[in-house]
């Protein structure tokens, strides 16, 4: 009897494959009052959807398979911000006692991003098939990186998954907030400079040639600034394609060598860290992410040596990532964390001392969170300072580029007017 029962039990992998074949159906039905209701349901076929609706006391009118949109069928890409919001939602629901599968179903139903909705639905179905949460998330390593999955695994092993998910949610929110702050500060000057460059190109291609022809017909000698602008216009008209190829080729080469050459990527990262103002922001951001990531993993119960593996890829800096890998080797042979940090020469003395106090008092995670909060605040202040400095600087650059070009074009006119 037991052998017969065992034969009827499907392997977990087969159950997952079977669950993943479910199709989403849109349905319209009448309830007991005759009120028209509509919704969607995942099932193997339309007959099962109708049977489930009848079981719920509704009279199915229409059940049809959900069609795929003509454009963007897979939906937009899943952004880190989407993962951060999901982390907070799942943490809140599990802390409130909502079962995990039901939590995933509720969150997936509320998603507007089709791709992320399908992803969460697939994770839910994998969990229903018998997999652990960290295993189900492992199907999407790009969206849920190794650090995320390790933290979830630690929470599952210790039986404090809801607490760990809350910590992970806070970590993702803080990390994305810093990224958004830096991107917002850089977006304005980049856009203004791009518009200024476009205006200059339009003037050189279409406006300056008209003035140049007028000056040529008048037979007047051109002042030096005007001659420079006219020469730039002639070069742009004749060799615009070479300039375009140079810009595109330069950017492509930069991206190519950054991805393919470790030495070049390391050199570029070091150069940016030493760059005035921006380098300070990048350095403080890396310190904040290192401290918060290590604090989160350590509080979740991940051993320090294992935690360092995940932290090395979460700093956002190749230089600091390599330093963390070296620190991991030092800690693995018995050195204190504060000593290994000091050997790199990349961590401020204040940070090293606070980590040392945390190690001596047994409150390393608490100290790391304090350090993270300090440097996150420093990043916010530095970004605000950068924004206030860039605004007048951008105005000066715009005045020199556009205003200088206009003045250069009108100098011959002033000269002609003075001779009349």
Automatic annotation (TrEMBL):
Mind telling me which PROSITE patterns this protein's record contains? Answer: T2SP_F (PS00874)
Every copy of the Type II secretion system protein GspF domain together lies at 86-209, 290-412
Keywords of this protein's UniProt record, alphabetized? Cell inner membrane, Cell membrane, Membrane, Transmembrane, Transmembrane helix, Transport
Membrane topology term reads: Multi-pass membrane protein
Question: Which Pfam families does the record match to this protein?
Answer: T2SSF
One BP annotation, GO: protein secretion by the type II secretion system
The record's family statement is: Belongs to the GSP F family.
Q: What is this protein called?
A: Type II secretory pathway protein
Q: What is the lineage of its organism?
A: Bacteria, Pseudomonadati, Pseudomonadota, Gammaproteobacteria, Lysobacterales
